[in-house]
Amino acid sequence: MSGTLVLVRHGQSEWNLKNLFTGWRDPGLTELGHSEAKAAGQRLKAKGLHFDIAYTSVLSRAQVTLQHILDEVGQPGLETIRNQALNERDYGDLSGLNKDDARAKWGEDQVHIWRRSYDVPPPGGESLRDTGARVWPYYLHDVQPHVLRGETVLVAAHGNSLRALIMALEGLTSEEIIAQELATGVPIIYTLNADSTVASKEILTA
Questions:
Q1: Which residues are annotated as a binding site for substrate?
Q2: Which of 21, 32, 54, 55 is a Cys-bridge partner for 94, taking CB atoms 3.0 to 4.6 Å apart?
Q3: Mean pLDDT over the full length of the chain
Q4: What's the pTM?
């Protein structure tokens, strides 16, 4: 029995637009972000997808993105689980800083290491490996069982929490996953085999 897992990074946030490190801070979506989320729902509806359960983080940009999608697919009241395990990577002392200002303070090389290494966290924050350490157990215990029962599951979350999840799903190395960019508001549809391996993957670009 194969199930379907749909991953969506939230639409553009106000801090994405301003080039700020966001992490666990909670800015809203921009006008474009709302449009991206609605468009994602429209593309999923066109694919004929009907969801059994949805998951998101405790941050509003992911929750609002999820609600737009559910509204568009005609399931506004779908059971939705919110959990901090799906939050964006915590950028610690970088949170709220403009990325150019951070480069001026710590140097371009150091900021690049914090942003793009797998296991070096910024001061007071999380590395991608740290993010995975909370995402992976939550996925295995709470989300994956629904998919393996043949259900269709929607997860609306963040660039790095989804990157960690994709790393596990696709068996990517640390070098491969840090090179992956996830566009805002673009659904990724996985079909899983009964043994939890990926049978197919489709990216629903505009």
A1: 9-16, 22-23, 61, 88-91, 99, 115-116, 159-160
A2: 21
A3: 96
A4: 0.96
